[in-house]
Each structure stands twice: as C-alpha cells, then as structure tokens.
UniProtKB/TrEMBL annotation:
Source species, domain of life: Bacteria
Protein name: Uncharacterized protein
Length: 107
C-alpha cells in the first residue's frame, strides 16, 4: 500500500498517510525504496511528499540501535517555493526530530 511521508511543521511531527488513515511520529526510519511526489497544483501544503509502496519498511520513532548500521550520506531537501526535491528517489531515509531528512547508506 502506498504511504506518503511529510512534515507537519505546525505540530513539529512527521506524518505517514495511507488511504486508511494517518499516524504521526517524532522520527522515522525508512529502510526501503522511496520516491518523491510533487503536487504543485494543490491549494494547501504540503505539496511535496516522500512515498514508498511498502509500509513494512517504515519504522516509527526508531531507537539508536536501528539507525547505527547506517551513515548519513546527504540531506534530502525540499524547496517549498520551487516545489521540488534535490533528489527524486533512493533507498534508506531517516526523518529526524529536528525536521531534517537524511539519505542513508549502509556502513
């Protein structure tokens, strides 16, 4: 099932949305393939999402032991004015509590 992940800045949490509902978390570890999705014609925010087809790859509020086998390769950056991401797809993401999104690689 397709899952959309986005930042809710008003509450300072990450949201995972499916057609069945929505859940929130302070941080998220995504251990599978992901792509970005843009909806520039939407009237409201967010207009950019990270999507994955496997909900089992999403770990909400992971402890440090799960994140330790990875290293931060770079940041996934969303430009809300241009409505675009700096990278369109990949594998392994960490959505941090501070609102940053890091592209990970296995050590």
């Amino acid at each position: 099932m397709k899952c959309r992940i986005y930042r809710c800045n008003c509450r300072k949490v990450w949201s995972v949305q499916t057609r069945r509902g929505k859940i929130t978390a302070q941080s998220i570890l995504l251990t599978g393939e992901w792509t970005t999705e843009l909806r520039p014609d939407r009237n409201c925010n967010p207009k950019g999402f990270v999507t994955t087809l496997q909900s089992r790859d999403i770990i909400l509020d992971p402890d440090l032991g799960l994140v330790k086998p990875f290293e931060k390769a770079s940041k996934l950056i969303y430009d809300k004015h241009l409505v675009e991401f700096n990278i369109r797809q990949g594998k392994y993401l960490f959505f941090a509590e501070d609102g940053s999104c890091y592209i990970l690689k296995r050590c």
